[in-house]
Amino acid sequence: MQAHDVLTQTPAGLYCPAGDFFIDPVRACPRALITHGHADHARSGHGAVLATRETLAIMELRYGADFTTSRQVVRYSEPVRIGDVDVSFYPAGHVLGSAQILIEANGYRLVVSGDYKRGHDPTCVPFDVLRCDAFISEATFGLPVFRHPDPRGEVGRLLESCKTFPDRAHLVGAYSLGKAQRLMALIHETGWNRPIHIHGAMEKITELYRAEGVPVGETRKIAGKTGGSLGGEIVVCPPSATRDLWARGFSDPVVAFASGWMRIRARARQGGVQLPLVVSDHADWDELCSTILDTECQELWVTHGAEDALVHWAVQRGLQARPLHLMGYGEEETEAALPAQ
Amino acid sequence: MNRFAELLDRLAYEPSRNNKLRLMIDYFRTEADPDRGYALAAMTGELSFAYAKPALIRTLIAERTDPVLFAMSYDYVGDLSETVALMWPHPGHGDNHPPAPGLGEIIETLHATRKAELPAQLSRWLDLLDETGRWALLKLITGALRIGVSARLAKTAVAALGDLPANEVEEVWHGLQPPYLELFAWIEGRSDRPQTNDPAPFRTPMLAQAIDDADFPGLNPEEFRAEWKWDGVRVQAVGGVGANGQRVTRLYSRTGEDVSAAFPDMVHALADNLFDDVTIDGELLVVRDGMVEPFSVLQQRLNRKTVSAKLIAEYPLHIRAYDLLADHGEDLRILPFDTRRQRLQALLARYRGGRIDLSPLLPFDSWETLAAARANPASAGAGLNADAIEGVMLKRRDSIYVSGRPRGLWWKWKRDPFNIDAVLMYAQRGHGKRSSYYSDFTFGVWRAGDGGDELVPVGKAYFGFTDEELLQLDRWVRNHTVSRFGPVREVTANKSEGVVLEIAFEGLNQSTRHKSGVAMRFPRIARIRWDKPARDADRLEALQKLLRV
Predict the structure, then answer these.
(1) How many H-runs (helices) and E-runs (strands) does chain B carry?
(2) Which of A1, A132, A181, B420 lies 20 to 30 A from B431 at CA?
(3) Mean pLDDT value of segment B243-247
(4) What is the pLDDT of residue B93?
(5) A194-207 pLDDT tens trace
(6) What is the pTM of this model?
(7) Domain limits at A307?
């Protein structure tokens, strides 16, 4: 048995004929299994959605209660029978509620990783290694130049800068779902005892995290015109907001951006970032490689990102590997790394 | 090293001068000797050691990584040092690895390291440094450290430690050596002002700002002098007498590199005539039979490892002097331009041999007269030398000589570029700052081919566009790719569809290396002509008309 006996590639995304469902489809489908709540993976308008409780809550927050006709909660590591296959969700360590999906068919095990990481994150359940025959991996940072440092060191650089420039607000661009709350929790962990100021666009999702018991610390919403300069304070906002009129309310702010792309200097410079923070919710090169080895898979499919390098690496190690070139994923990190539009 | 690297990293991203200053002051205040002194040397371009070749770095990384993965990574990142810094494998020291080397330790070791030992030494350091540290070390060791601050700004930061103006540091600067222990001691009030003793020091040159049409209304022609802007190489000729009575003659590049060895004939000619404690600022040119040759001729003398007698005879060098910074021990930089020029004229009147002369002033009474001279140097007194002129220089009559690029004192007014409309043919991801975007554009013009009109590439441009235009071009390239060759994309370019780029360039040379037979100097994208149909772009004949006969 091989991976393509279980899963096929269609324009809407990965499809499992034996269970008649799609995984993270990019267009509306009758039945969808959703790995996590980022908009490029979780779209509205499906007939039925199976996902973790947290992911369903995030989708409802984002799209309204009628984002799907019917929904079903799945708990981590509890198998659900769909058609001729057993499906179970396991933590992916990406964002709150994120999951890998294990499909078992006649003893054959195939895992769709969704987006995942192995690094420290106080906001979600850490990644579980699943032994499998076929592993379908993302490769957002699938080049050996992407090696994320310890995020606590990056947060340390931010706090250091707040000390060096006590008169300048530090605007930290971070994707609203997941990255922003992870940063808040990491900052909170260092013992930072002042409130973190947040852009209005991330208030609701941060509240959702707080209600789920994630230690994001004290936050304060910035209402309307910013007024005060917030010198030496940390302001977390969507990446695009650092280039909006909104940002001009601060005098001479330090513009920081938390993303794995910040590892590449040209990217950071292009985005007008003054303090690039290499904090990513995706596996870096070393994590991708060690995870693939950990799964002991025979076959590897690489869904999105820098597929070719990872496939080359896997083939060198005797794995059967191929790139899928799936379109439409990975935008939550790239969108914001582009220069001002 | 890691702290210095972190400073460099922050400086590179920080656009504001004041904030750069604050970062540097903070560093100088908190970093210890001798590391901060070597950092100052790095930032002022005063470090000297035998640089490593990029080939060495390629060899080291090739021993440690898969060649295919390296090629993919390098293509993506676009910068060799950065790619290697990011890919360098973790050595896995366990817990008791030695501490990362300091900048001072690295510089001092580099001075003492023999070439054969360098690869092993460099690997040891790379194993101990973090990513930013590795990046900074590789940039440092290949001589490609671009700090994003001027030497002047670094000195200003040091001076600020002791609440001193930057000129105080400039005055004692020459003759001081890295790691500047006595300088920091003086600035921090721990010792007396240091004495200098270099017999032929380099003095950081004064640079001109590019002038813009909008600048003229605010400028009074009577306050300015004008000269031709010679298209050569800026040099500083310095003569002095050492402590042992030995005469020292040096030729420096504008960045302070001692280039005497590359131009022995010029140094000889100067030594025959020179001078005790004289510093002349001027342009290095090739002059044959009294005629100044264009830059393309001078180029035969540049970047040569060895200088043959034949080369020296065929391309005789000459300095056209335009400023005098020091004369018999007296620092003239605090005098007005007019006074310095009189002193220069008097000095040169005594010289023999014809290898150094005075750059003439251009008389003018209004910006219009000067504009006419700039538009046609040949009929404004430059005669046959017109091909070696790339515009005019404006210098305030009362301006003192300020190192760096001060505002409003010296202006360069380059001749207007040439313009053509060309069609975008290929795009490649850039290197350096723009490496994640399709930002290197090959463009072509129409010519008659066997099966009707065809495009022939005539050049490549990397800049001239705004960030927003870059994004538009990048998107257009991605959506109109017709084929790929490695990192290069061929885009749609035919009579009915294609992007027209208005290309500005400085000149055109005949070239046997290019299919079109022409090579552009300094091409850049002046405008993107989204409005212009590709079929209306220029033809090769229009370019051929510009070729010098």
Answers:
(1) 19, 20
(2) B420
(3) 81
(4) 62
(5) 999 999 999 999 99
(6) 0.68
(7) 3-145+281-331
CATH number reported for the structural domain that contains residue B102 in this entry: 1.10.3260.10
User: Of B414, B439, B465, which residue constitutes the final position of a domain?
Assistant: B414
A156 and chain B in contact, CB less than 8 A: no
> What's the per-residue H, E or C state across B329-372?
CEECCCCCHHHHHHHHHHHHHCCCCCCEEECCECCCCCHHHHHH
Chain B residues with CB-CB distance to A266 below 8 A: 77-79, 430, 432-436
Length of chain A in residues, anyone? 341
Residues B392 and B256 in one domain: yes
Give yes or no: residues A262 and A248 share one domain: yes
Would residue A257 count as lying in a domain? yes
Q: Are residues B427 and B385 in the same domain?
A: no
Task: Write out pLDDT tens, residues B27-81.
Answer: 999 999 999 999 999 998 888 777 788 899 999 999 999 999 999 999 999 999 9
Domain boundary among A238, A259, A277: A277
pLDDT at A177 over 50: yes
Q: Are residues B109 and B219 both part of a single domain?
A: no
Residues of B in contact with A156 (CB under 8 A): none
Q: Where are the beta strands (DSSP E) in A37-121?
A: 46-51, 68-73, 80-82, 85-91, 99-105, 108-112
In-domain check, residue B166: no
Indicate which CATH number applies to the domain containing A252: 3.40.50
User: What are the tens digits of pLDDT across the range B398-434?
Assistant: 999 998 788 899 999 998 888 999 999 999 876 544 5
Range of the domain at B457: 418-544
B76/A contact by beta carbon, under 8 A: yes
In a domain, A338, yes or no: no
Cβ <8 Å between A266 and B434: yes
Residue A339 lies in a domain: no
Determine, yes or no, domain membership for A340.
Answer: no
Interchain contact A338–B (C-beta under 8 A): yes
> Which residue, B414, B435, B465, sits at the end of a domain?
B414
Rounded to whole angstroms, the Cα distance separating A181 from A202 reads: 9
Two structure tokens written together for A309: 């390098």
Dump pLDDT digits (tens) for B293-349: 988 788 889 877 789 999 999 999 999 999 999 998 899 999 999 999 999 999 999
Select from B476, B471, B504 the least CA-distant residue to B489.
Answer: B476
A252 shares contact with chain B (CB less than 8 Å):
yes
- Give which of A140, A168, A259, A264 to mutate to test B binding, by max B Cβ within 10 Å: A264
- pLDDT tens per residue across span B353-366: 789 999 999 999 99
Tell whether B442 and B540 lie within a shared domain.
yes
Distances (CA, A) of B106 to B41, B80, B177, B363: 13, 21, 16, 53
Q: Which two tokens stand for residue B403?
A: 């190192």
Burial (0-12, 13-18, 19+ Cβ within 10 Å), B30? exposed
More confident residue, B290 or A132: A132
- Cβ distance of B76 and A264 shorter than 8 Å: yes
The count of structural domains within chain A is 2
**Looking at the structure, do residues A117 and A239 belong to the same domain, yes or no?**
no
